Amino acid sequence: xxxxxxxxxxxxxxxxxQSMHAYAIQDSRGLIKLDAMENPFTLPPExxxxxxxxxxxLAINRYPGPGHAQxxxxxxxxxxxxxxxxxxxxxxSDELIDILSVACNRPGATLLAPLPGFVMYEMSARLxxxxxxxxxxxxxxxxxxxxxxxxxAQHRPALTYIAYPNNPSANLFDDAVIDRLVAAVxxxxxxxxxxxAYQPFASRxxxxxxxxxxHEHVLVLRTLSKFGLAGVRLGYLCGAAALIDEIDKxxxxxxxxxxxxxxxxxxxxxxxxxxxxxxxxxxERERLQAALRAxxxxxxxxxxxxxxxxxxxxxxxxxxxMKARGVLVKHVAAxxxxxxxxxxxxxxTPEENTAMFNALKASL
Length: 364
What we know:
Blueprint lengths: L2 H10 L2 H4 L13 E2 L11 H12 L9 H13 L6 E6 L1 H12 L6 E6 L3 H9 L3 E6 L8 H11 L3 E5 L11 H13 L3 E5 L22 E6 L1 H5 L5 E6 H8 L9 H12 L1 H23 L5 E2 L6 E5 L3 H10 L2 E2 L1 E2 L10 E5 L3 H14 L1
Parallel strand pairs: 1-11, 3-4, 3-5, 5-6, 6-7
Antiparallel strand pairs: 2-8, 7-8, 9-10, 10-13, 12-13
């Protein structure tokens, strides 16, 4: 970088942006990739051929048109959206998180979320000019109800995010606690967003709660990434029709490409195949949990996602040792004090999981 360009950046780029770190994506070349909670299964050859033919017939010379409406209709049925509710779509749930920050950015607005949690809540808030308030979870990654209620009363957040299950801890929070938090946010005229990115692997969902009149301020955010389409980038946001109509005004025109929309329609046509894959991953998660619990000095935390958070005696050593043995996981210890000596393990294929376990065992 030249001196002139460095000076220009100082004058033009926001100081807070210059001080930030970009979202980190690890180089996984040559490694078993178990760091990003992706579905490890590729499509059977016959479905690959069908998808290719469908994408090849698209009019990619035109802006997206009727396919978006068809996709939203299919998602309404797939998600079992309650009556009186609507949804809108985004280029991944990340875009919808940003759209919410834009839509709710009134003067003095605050975004609140438990920590540790998904980093994009805070990043989106800060980049869009909202204040961010993080409330630490308990030592076992449960919601601290008293602290959350105090923060809601003090900061009156416009948006409160509750990941369900949480990332990176992978657990579902207590629903009785959640109900009290939802009521408190509603009394302060704010919105609650349940981020259900890992819903295909969870035993519970908050979707049905959208039907309750007292939950008109509640939104449910989902993605097809964990469903099996991480490369497609397709998220959807559900809530009361009048609320979605207002949020949808912020959505950029043609934000989801015809290729992405058609790939999502294809996946919904073959939802049984993706359900089969999710069932296998849930079985593998339980197999991994049992094996991890038997390792001396290793503490796996309960999981309702396609990942397992584990605490080991020396996470830096274990991470480096696993990588040297060809397995890439996520070292999360530096993300929050509650995550000391923790690794986040994505649940992969049976073969990948065996390799990951053996690599961890050898690296302790």
